[in-house]
What we know:
Helices cover 33% and strands 24% of the residues. By secondary structure, it is an alpha/beta fold. Strand 6 and strand 7 form a beta hairpin. Helix 2 (34-45) packs parallel to helix 11. The protein is globular. The mean pLDDT is 92.
Amino acid sequence: MMTKEEVKNRAAGIRLLALDADGTCLTSDKRCTDRTIRVVNQLAERGCLIVPASGRGYAGLLENVFPFSGVRYVISSDGALVTECATGRHLWDEKIPCKTAARLAKEMLLEDTCIYYHREAGENTYFRACKSEETYRKIFSGSIYRGSFDDVLTEGLDQVILRDGMDISKMGLWFSRPDGFAYYEPIIAREFPELNYFRGDVNALEFTSCRTSKGEALKALASQLGIDRSQVCAIGDNGNDISMLEFAGLGVAMENAIESAKEKADFIIGSNDEEGVAEFLETYLYI
């Protein structure tokens, strides 16, 4: 872990700032505070390249999640895509092959799980499947992700994926069993070596192609822009952020981050509900 003085020295050379959304820039009620918006925009005006790096799909990300001005590049779907905002061109595109996604959906859609996937097709498309409404409500009880069961498939998600014939940017597994991580992670590691997996919530695993992650996408973007990793700062809180915290010359974890993310970070800052990002940027980068 870096000292405050070491962080100040490293921060002086930062040219690119990669920011996670949920649990990082966003409060628990999914707001980006005015203070955070102001500080990030001021950094951008000073020449720092601001790169949102989210598990969410690209469509609507800047309008509804990251209300920052002057964003030129976005990492979405946990590193499946890097999009140039002005043109919509993908500078990085590593999706889960259609057949692999269908097999995962078929094998993991069980009595106590919910499967979802993101597909980037002009507009982001998001599908969910669960065996029963009872299981769905059990998994999402009190969750902001609950939504309406009317739009949830109860079977045949694998056939939907195969029929569409499109590769998938990201998939996820919600589970209700208390030992879900211990149970499902070995299965995924053994049966799906073509996938990366990481903990996305207290009862969720997320999957991308094994060829990518937020860290790999950030590395690819920095390389294309001629920015050394020592000039990159990344801030995050969850399992899908660990790879970019490891890649960045200055990896910063939130106080509310999972322990494995904190262990990989160079520095720990205040929580998302304490405007930790804004406080850190004002103290170490906005100087």
